[in-house]
């Protein structure tokens, strides 16, 4: 393939409810979409970067900037364009994994569409539907939390993840266990809000039989996680710390995690995400698919990834209506706690033009 054009498109999608984490409150998603045109097909990519660099160093304006200034011009030079070429061509540029992932996803989509192959099959999927969990934000009160969790369980979600931070951890977990019982698959996510000095406090979560505690410590504190893991019965899962297959291998070797959250954007794309999966599988470490409050485009691709054999835990691949009143694709609808893995070529879905137009705040063509 040859790259003939790239469009960067910004969309603003209001969330159905504010989503509060230890790093801030999101009320809407400002999403960067990448549409690549090649001589053979068009492809769509979605960038996971949030508006502010509070979850990771990347932010949406920065991602757009590095794509227009460096990544798209470098890729336009390549004469045998395919998804593997994206990683190769962009390798000299440090970091900016979410921006790289968005461009790779778009090229991968175009390549697979041109060949009539679905992403799930390309990645090695072994399922045509995946069980879904839901990530529940920090609430103003325990009562509000119980109502929210109850609603998600009624909707069929098979696993609940509670966002935690100092002051909102043991009590909400205890309340959810007391109300909904010990059979609910339950886990927590701290988004780096604790330090190793909190180890004894976090051990108070041990009696509740959580599946895991996600990223309790700073993303660079890999040894701290290894030490914490020794002091907790709850398995430690890493999110922010895992930025590549190499960092996953290192974290596992150091004993810093018993479980890994795989987000394609955080590790630089779906191809590296598969390599993270492979490394974890080789070490017997279970993985699950994280999310960045994606639109239907990113969701479609995440479902393909979540269908790989090592994804033995339900992911944050929730239905469209958990996030948005109107998605930009045909909505993903939960059925028996599962979402179907798209089976059409490429990522398997496309934006609905009118819905996309409604939420678009800016479009920009990058010269190729
Ligand atoms: O830490 O997993 C996280 C959302 C935005 C940024 C970071 C995280 C999250 C979530 C929700 O937990 C994931 C989703 O449902 O898309
Ligand atoms: Mg997380």
UniProtKB/TrEMBL annotation:
Family annotation (Pfam families): MR_MLE_C, MR_MLE_N
TM regions (residue ranges): none
Ranges of residues in domain Mandelate racemase/muconate lactonizing enzyme C-terminal: 142-235
Keywords tagged on the record: Lyase, Magnesium, Metal-binding
Database matches in InterPro entries: Enolase-like_C_sf, Enolase-like_N, Enolase_C-like, Mandelate_racemase_C, Mandelate_racemase_N_dom, OSBS/NAAAR
EC number: 4.2.1.113
Known cofactor(s): a divalent metal cation
PANTHER family, A to Z: O-SUCCINYLBENZOATE SYNTHASE, O-SUCCINYLBENZOATE SYNTHASE-RELATED
Name of the protein in its database record: o-succinylbenzoate synthase
Organism: Amycolatopsis tucumanensis
Organism lineage: Bacteria, Bacillati, Actinomycetota, Actinomycetes, Pseudonocardiales
């Amino acid at each position: 393939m040859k790259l003939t054009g790239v469009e960067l498109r910004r969309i603003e999608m209001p969330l159905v409810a504010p989503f509060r984490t230890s790093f801030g409150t999101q009320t809407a998603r400002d999403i960067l979409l990448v549409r690549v045109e090649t001589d053979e097909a068009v492809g769509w990519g979605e960038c996971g970067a949030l508006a502010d660099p509070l979850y990771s160093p990347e932010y949406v304006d920065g991602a757009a900037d590095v794509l227009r200034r460096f990544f798209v011009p470098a890729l336009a030079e390549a004469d045998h364009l395919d998804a593997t070429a994206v990683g190769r061509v962009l390798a000299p540029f440090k970091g900016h994994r979410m921006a790289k992932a968005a461009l790779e996803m778009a090229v991968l989509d175009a390549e697979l569409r041109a060949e009539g192959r679905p992403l799930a099959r390309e990645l090695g999927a072994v399922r045509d539907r995946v069980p879904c969990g839901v990530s529940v934000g920090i609430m103003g009160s325990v009562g509000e939390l119980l109502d929210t969790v109850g609603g998600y369980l009624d909707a069929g979600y098979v696993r609940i993840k509670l966002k935690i931070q100092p002051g909102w951890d043991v009590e909400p977990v205890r309340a959810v266990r007391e109300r909904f019982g010990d059979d609910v698959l339950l886990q927590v996510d701290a988004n780096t809000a604790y330090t190793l000095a909190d180890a004894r406090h976090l051990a108070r979560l041990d009696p509740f039989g959580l599946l895991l505690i996600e990223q309790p410590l700073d993303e660079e504190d890999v040894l701290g996680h290894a030490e914490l893991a020794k002091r907790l019965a709850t398995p430690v899962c890493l999110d922010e710390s895992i930025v590549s297959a190499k960092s996953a291998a290192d974290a596992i070797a150091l004993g810093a995690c018993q479980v890994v959250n795989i987000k394609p954007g955080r590790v630089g794309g779906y191809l590296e995400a598969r390599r993270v999966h492979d490394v974890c599988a080789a070490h017997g470490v279970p993985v699950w698919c994280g999310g960045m409050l994606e639109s239907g485009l990113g969701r479609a691709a995440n479902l393909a990834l979540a269908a790989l054999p090592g994804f033995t835990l339900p992911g944050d691949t929730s239905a469209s209506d958990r996030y948005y009143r109107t998605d930009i694709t045909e909505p993903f609808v939960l059925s028996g706690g599962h979402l179907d893995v798209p089976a059409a070529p490429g990522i398997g879905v496309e934006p609905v033009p009118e819905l996309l137009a409604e939420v678009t705040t800016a479009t920009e063509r990058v010269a190729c």
